[in-house]
Specification:
alpha/beta; Hypothetical Protein Ychn, Chain: A; 5-stranded parallel β-sheet; about 30% helix; transferase; DsrEFH-like
Length: about 100
Amino acid sequence: MLHILMKSPFETNINFLISMLKKSDDFLALQDGVLIGLKNNIFLTKMIRSSVRLYLIKEDVYARGIHKNISTNFRLISYIHFVSLTLNNKKQMNW
């Protein structure tokens, strides 16, 4: 399953989202959701422990000027790769 976070993690029930993640899932954050990738944020340890593949939309990270503060646990991808993730994950959940 592909979990897509579009809102700031501070505006979402992120603990519930994390509890729904399975090791075989992909997690993608875009728009204000990319804040989840900031180093040392309060949700980062739980996200890493979930063992899912973690992605951020590169354009949204750079648009917010936070590219130097992103955890190395997240892979920055383009919108083209986002399309590939949706094709590879028949089930998707928007948060």
